[in-house]
Amino acid sequence: MLDDGSVDLKRQLIGRRPERWPVRPFREPAWARQEPTYAECGPALIEAAVKRAGSRPAGNWFVFAAAREVRADRPSGVRVAGRELVAWRGPGGELRVGPGACPHLGAPLAQARVHCGELVCRWHGLRVGGDRPGWTALPSYDDGVLAWVRLDRPGGEPPAERPVVPARPRGTTVDAVATLTGVCEPEDVVANRLDPWHGAWFHPYSFARLRVLSAPRGIDVAEPDDRFVVEVTFRLAGKLGVPVVAEFTCPGPRTVLMTIVDGEGAGSVVETHATPLGPGTDGRPRTAVIEATIAASGRPGFARAARLAPVLRPLMRRAAARLWRDDLAYAERRYALRTDHH
């Protein structure tokens, strides 16, 4: 068993040669007869982990979309922290983000046309792209998988030049991004991810034989030790699955990073970003879960499989969306209990 002080766990495990055949048969009790986990995941433990995550700086950066969703031929309308934004790509493919309302009469720039890298408003032909009175481009960042925007007023922190992008596998990878929206706040999404004990109970179609090997205890935990280490089998079909060891960390206040540290796909990550959208028509907050799965493998055949990324991405998105349909119910319930709106 791994102990709580295994700070060098990732360095120790990543780089092992993969097993010849990663799929293993497994035995497990019936769902109702599996070992209960409620005694291990005390509410205070989860709340303390959420508070520690919330205290980390983000430099006012927010993930708002998958990078490949922002195109050069048409703009995309997005909403972050109650602000209407528009995003598109310039002549060189660079990411551009700015206010979503035309400075002339407020037309939706998400419906504008892109011409020579600028937006042309469809109401009266006003061009925006650089700075104009009433319209200023916002700091933005494309990390190759996700698109970020910096909003200093909603963020309320000292601004950072770049966002905190979690560590990702190098070399050949396959990535996919799933986006869902829930009636909750970012902290409710983070709390869901910092409760790994619910996996085999709440998602028996995906996880089996889940065991939390170590978890941060107490309120004051040094950042290198602030991680959950989990042993779990990803279910493939019937009683066949892929056993791995994964760790969960929070590099920022709205981000939870799961890294596979041992087993098939060691080094692969799942980045869960919780982005506040602002209130809905009912006055309650909406939060977007933007989750990037970045898969890697040391197997010789992975490079060939990566060529099928356009085929694999929809399957990866579908798997993530299925989990998050359940997990958003968890996050929404937590928000309702916190605010007594249920």
UniProtKB/TrEMBL annotation:
The keyword tRNA-binding appears for this protein: no
Record-linked InterPro entries: Cholesterol_7-desaturase (IPR050584), DUF5914 (IPR045612), Rieske_2Fe-2S (IPR017941), Rieske_2Fe-2S_sf (IPR036922)
Domain Rieske: residue ranges: 61-149
PROSITE patterns xref list: RIESKE (PS51296)
Coiled coil: none
Signal peptide extent: none
Molecular functions per Gene Ontology: 2 iron, 2 sulfur cluster binding; metal ion binding; monooxygenase activity; oxidoreductase activity, acting on paired donors, with incorporation or reduction of molecular oxygen
Keyword Metal-binding tagged: yes
Keywords: 2Fe-2S, Iron, Iron-sulfur, Metal-binding, Oxidoreductase
Official protein name in the record: Rieske (2Fe-2S) protein
Organism the protein comes from: Amycolatopsis balhimycina DSM 5908
